[in-house]
TrEMBL record:
Subcellular location: Cytoplasm
Domain GDPGP1-like C-terminal: 245-396
Function recorded in the entry: Specific and highly efficient GDP-D-glucose phosphorylase regulating the levels of GDP-D-glucose in cells.
Protein's recorded name: GDP-D-glucose phosphorylase 1
Organism superkingdom: Eukaryota
Sequence similarity: Belongs to the GDPGP1 family.
Annotated catalysed reactions: GDP-alpha-D-glucose + phosphate = alpha-D-glucose 1-phosphate + GDP + H(+)
GO cellular component: cytoplasm
């Protein structure tokens, strides 16, 4: 008999209509993102430049408008009272230490949630229209459509759904935001895609990061089994004007064969960081980078390995983290001390932005406590190297023979280094 690993989970509410997902409906009765309403609706449209080259100063001035437009639209939804709490009032600080983990106290985020039975031992699960999905979101939560504009970027305040034969990509607010400007990118919303990476959707996420052209606007992805709470394809994104700890972490470049290097993509692994991960950079085109990383993600999900992805540096740097925390949690291998924090280490936490739900945890937060939590997420060194080899094969990467082992031993490489406190004010970092 097959054993199912499950956790009694209380997922974050990402839409104001999530609590109504199980209620029968005799017709829509409101403007939603479903087939009943969306095809005949008009929504704002942001058209992005399809092939962003290295921007000139003139181009950079225009592409910055994406972040300005997104944040302006997000703030307008805040004035309309669409969020469940005011995230800009949450206390935030940089924890003194070598990496500068960012801690936020968000006591409101674990309230008003709908209990569900969440299966954690299957990364790929079929889309279930009976459960909450983004077609049930009201159009007032949508900021704009996000579509290919060819050679130009532009914004329209009101536009029909762009193509009758193609489901639109939409950007919507997360009504339980982690940070200022927290949004969801939902590719081809009417296609009802389950939470799984495909090359086209991953390229779309990179195109959003490139269009933002800001190091402080990042996108993240959580697979099922790695703390995605909705099985409908989506990426998350928000704006935070400090470096993430993982972006500052040391890396070791993995030498690749000459044939592999033709795409221009380089691969490194994180050094002296609590979660083992790979870093993909470069690429002759954005599509080259998207192809290599999405191929890696596809192998992970097809082989039932939960993972998280951080899209950083305007889409030029991608962090990939295979993880095992939910599996350990289901098997009873996580300490009660960590479970009591109620922190689910998804992409933002793994990247070093840790949302804490209890004031005591926030006030006592230290680099040691952050490291202790995140170390439970990481694969063992042996398992990580095994997974890395499979990923390389799937992505068509061939490691050169002259690589020197960057591992310094389990304890030496993956242990926090005591240092003097960083000269950074610990005031609120959230934009007001």
């Amino acid at each position: 008999m097959e054993m199912k690993l499950t956790i009694r989970r209380v997922p974050t509410v990402v839409s104001n209509y999530q609590d109504d997902a199980d209620k029968p409906r005799a017709g829509c009765g409101r403007n939603c993102l479903g087939d009943c309403c969306l095809p005949v609706s008009k929504l704002p449209l942001y058209a992005f430049k399809a092939n962003p080259a290295k921007p000139s100063q003139e181009d950079a001035a225009s592409t910055k408008s994406f972040v300005n437009i997104l944040l302006s639209e997000w703030e307008e939804r805040m004035t309309r009272g669409l969020f469940r709490y005011d995230v800009t009032a949450c206390e935030t600080k940089v924890i003194p230490g070598n990496l500068g983990f960012v801690a936020q106290l968000n006591e409101g985020r674990h309230l008003k949630k709908r209990p569900t039975e969440f299966r954690v031992d299957r990364v790929l699960q079929p889309f279930d229209p009976a459960k909450f999905n983004f077609t049930k979101v009201g159009q007032e939560e949508v900021l704009f459509q996000f579509e290919n504009g060819g050679d130009d970027s532009y914004f329209l305040n009101n536009a029909p759904i762009t193509a009758a034969d193609r489901a639109p990509n939409v950007v919507a607010i997360n009504v339980s935001p982690i940070e200022y400007g927290h949004v969801l990118l939902i590719p081809r919303v009417l296609d009802r895609l389950p939470q799984r990476i495909d090359p086209e959707s991953f390229l779309l996420a990179l195109q959003m990061a490139a269009e933002a052209a800001s190091p402080y606007f990042r996108l993240g992805y959580n697979s099922l089994g790695a703390f995605a709470t909705i099985n409908h394809l989506h990426f998350q994104a928000y704006y935070l004007s400090v470096p993430f700890p993982v972006e500052k972490a040391a890396t070791h470049k993995i030498p690749l064969s000459e044939d592999t290097m033709k795409s221009g993509v380089t691969v490194s692994k994180l050094i002296n960081y609590p979660v083992r991960g790979l870093v993909f950079e470069g690429g002759n085109t954005l599509n080259d980078l998207a192809t290599v990383v999405s191929s890696s993600c596809i192998w992970l999900q097809d082989n039932n390995v939960p993972y998280n992805v951080l899209i950083s540096d305007s889409g030029k740097r991608i962090f990939l983290f295979p993880q095992c925390y939910a599996e350990k949690q289901a098997l009873g291998e996580v300490s009660q001390e960590l479970l009591d924090t109620q922190v689910n280490p998804a992409v933002w936490e793994i990247s070093g932005h840790i949302v804490l739900k209890r004031r005591n945890d926030y006030e006592e937060a230290s680099e040691t406590s952050a490291w202790k939590l995140l170390a439970e997420v990481s694969l063992s060194e042996e398992r990580f190297e095994e997974v890395r080899a499979y990923i390389f094969t799937a992505a068509g990467l061939v490691q050169a023979d002259d690589d020197e082992d960057a591992s310094e031993g389990e304890e030496a490489t993956y242990a926090p280094v005591p240092v003097a406190p960083m000269p950074v004010a610990e005031g609120c970092l959230v934009l007001q």
